Amino acid sequence: MNTDALSSAIASQLVMLFAALMLVLQLLLVAQQMLLVAVRLYALQSLMLTAIAGVVAYYYNAPHVYIVAVLTLAGKVVFLPWLLNRIVRDIKIHKEVEPLLNAATSTLICLGLAVLGFIVARPFTTLERLGSNTLAIAVTLLLTGFFLMFNRRKAITQVLALLTVENGIMLAAIALTSYGMPLVVEIGIFFDVLVAVMVLGILVYRIRESFDSVDTAKLTRLKG
Amino acid sequence: MNLNLPAFLLQTALLLLLSPLVTGCIRNWKAKLQNRRGPRVWQPYFDLAKCLRKDRVISEHASWIFSAAPCVLFFSSLLAGLMTPLVTTSPPLSLFGDALAVVGLLALGRFFLALGGLDPASAFGGMGSSREMSIAAVAEPALMLSIFTVAIGAGSTDLGRIVTVAQGPGWQLLAPAHLMAFAALFVVLLAETGRIPVDNPATHLELTMIHEAMLLEYSGRDLALMEWGASVKQLVLMAILSNIFVPIGLATGHSISDLALGLAVFVAKILLLSAGVVLVETVNAKLRLFRVPDLLSAAFVLATLALFSTFLFGIK
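^ inputs. structure came back:
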């Protein structure tokens, strides 16, 4: 086996490994009720995404993917978790009281979603290319992210769910397109998310101020 | 391929002699980590010897099942161990059964263990049996699915064959499917051997015990057989976990040096795995009984995902 084929095999194994870890972290997130731990899991998941971006950038020797990796590291591993941590500490709610479905049921539902994602992505995974198999995991992250969003009542967890959906999209963008998307698009998505989370953060404060709770189920009546 | 008598005897001896040592090591190391001196490593041998010498007391309400259960548990664990590759890639009884037979034998042992708990009609025994069975109902599918994950890669459910293929080239140790299956099997190991997130092996507190609750009525040599059988079962599960996923150093031939090397590596792997179990036991608190299905369903989900990713990522 020549060195080129070898490095390709190692690179694709690494990408697969990190993508699978992202999926596992997502499932842990679905089962997790403590908000601070959930934020930490999200940070870890983003770290895996950074690692994938790093591997892809190194393999294709693509400088702009390095930029994406650095942005992901700075934004999603360090800044956003720090911001969410601060919000959780400020509103002093550390635990999701009761998700609509309990942990065992929701992990099983997510298993079903994962299987669905795997089946949907199956026809596209025969391509002999780096990381083409990660489409299944990207789709699964998307589906389970949406599930997480409507399974939880707290606004913070819903923000986290949105972020994991975005992680899934980024995973598809980095690993699936051969050099990642154009830098402009990547940066666009990145700042979109950044601003969205900051706005949502402020919204969480506001919800708490006017309703004494961050339970979104209570947002059914208008308050004068 | 016929029955190889020396191999049969050697593996039986290894299973019987090594398993109390593993139990003793886990107890001793756990105590050390908690700043206690702890019992000596070979204390379980003395315990077994003492129990074997003692008379037994049997409740007058107990039927023949009560006395039969320890034997069934002991011999089913031993048979399962003889079908599992420990030191060599060809276990002595591999002709008689594959991974499914091993899982089935372990299930048979558990069935009789639960019956033995129910039989004397003590409240605690029944409670332990019901808990054991409800945990097993989730743990067993996870065990099967993780073994199937590697079996698909090897193209056979024969454990010896799986290990042989795993030693060959083209086996991806770090494939996501294998990692997930390993994690799932580790959780199953904790659940099946009654380790801390699921059951506390050191407690006799009524509300929390599972395995101990079923053994409460046993004494004398019945208790010895029960304890011995449980530690053999623990060794078998550990051997499956370590040899399938880390198939390093298994002897392929039957020369003395091969076997010695295989034995040394095997003991090292088992002790390393025990150290992992000790660490998990020390840093985790016992889960509330109603949270245990969450943990086990996570293991089940991991194992299922592992199985699906073998198709997706195409190991081999």
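Chain A touches chain B through 26 residues (CB under 8 Å). The two ends of chain A are 72 Å apart (CA to CA).
thumbs up if we can close this ticket
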